[in-house]
Design a protein that fits this description.
With 179 residues, this protein is of the alpha+beta class. The protein has helices at 7-75, 81-99, 130-141; strands at residues 76-77, 102-108, 112-113, 117-128, 148-156, 164-176. The chain has 2 domains: 8-77; 78-176, Alpha-Beta Plaits, CATH 3.30.70. It is built from 3 helices and 6 strands. A hairpin with a 7-residue loop joins strand 5 and strand 6 (164-176). The radius of gyration is 38 Å and the shape is rod-shaped. The N and C termini lie far apart (84 Å).
Length: 179
C-alpha cells in the first residue's frame, strides 16, 4: 500500500506530521484554553473592582448608620398610622394656637407609602390675618413639626375685614422604623 520512503522523505514526512500536530494542538487546544483563561481573568478583574467599591461603601456604613439613626430619631414613625394621623392633627392645632389663627376644618388625605417612608398629608382650612397665617406656615415648617407645605390657596371673605381664609395642604414624611 504505502511505498517505501527514503530516509530523507521519511524525515520530511515525520516533520510534516509533527508540524500538523503542533498546528492542530495550537488551534484546537492551546487557543481555546488561552481565550477561556483571558475571560476568567477579565471576570476576576471586574469582580476585584466590585469588591474594592463595596469595601469603600462598607467603610462608610458606620457613618451613614449614625446619620440614619439621627434622622430616625426625628423623622421615624413610632406610632401606628391612625395614631400618627392624630398626632399630626394635634401638632397642627398647636401651631395654629401659637400663631393665633382659627382652624375651620382639617381633613386627612390618603397616606402615601413608599419603600422606606410614609407621607401623611392633611388639608387645613384656617382663618386669620395674612401676617398670622404666614406665622402659622412658618411654624409648621420649623422644629418640632417639620411639615412641608405643598399647596396654599387664599380667599378674601370680606372687603372690610382683614381676615383671610386659606386652605393649606401640609404633609410630613416619616421613615418606616420597621426596616
Amino acid at each position: 500500500m504505502f511505498p517505501r520512503l527514503s530516509k530523507r522523505e521519511s524525515q520530511i514526512f515525520v516533520l510534516c506530521v509533527l508540524m500538523a500536530l503542533i498546528f492542530v494542538g495550537f488551534q484546537f487546544i492551546y487557543r481555546p484554553i488561552r481565550s477561556q483563561e483571558n475571560l476568567v481573568d477579565q471576570r476576576i478583574n471586574v469582580t476585584k473592582k466590585k469588591i474594592k467599591k463595596n469595601i469603600i461603601i462598607l467603610k462608610d456604613e458606620k457613618s451613614v448608620n449614625v446619620v440614619y439613626e439621627e434622622y430616625l430619631k426625628v423623622f421615624g414613625q413610632k406610632l401606628s398610622d391612625q395614631q400618627q394621623t392624630n398626632q399630626v392633627f394635634s401638632q397642627i392645632e398647636a401651631a395654629a394656637k401659637k400663631a393665633e389663627i382659627k382652624i375651620i376644618n382639617m381633613k386627612p388625605q390618603r397616606i402615601r407609602e413608599e419603600d422606606l417612608f410614609r407621607k401623611f398629608s392633611v388639608s387645613v382650612q384656617a382663618q386669620g390675618t395674612m401676617q398670622l397665617i404666614m406665622k402659622f406656615i412658618y411654624l409648621l415648617e420649623q422644629e418640632p413639626y417639620h411639615f412641608q407645605i405643598e399647596e396654599i390657596r387664599f380667599e378674601k371673605r370680606s372687603i372690610r375685614s382683614e381676615d383671610i381664609r386659606c386652605e393649606i395642604i401640609a404633609s410630613r414624611i416619616l421613615i418606616d422604623s420597621t426596616l
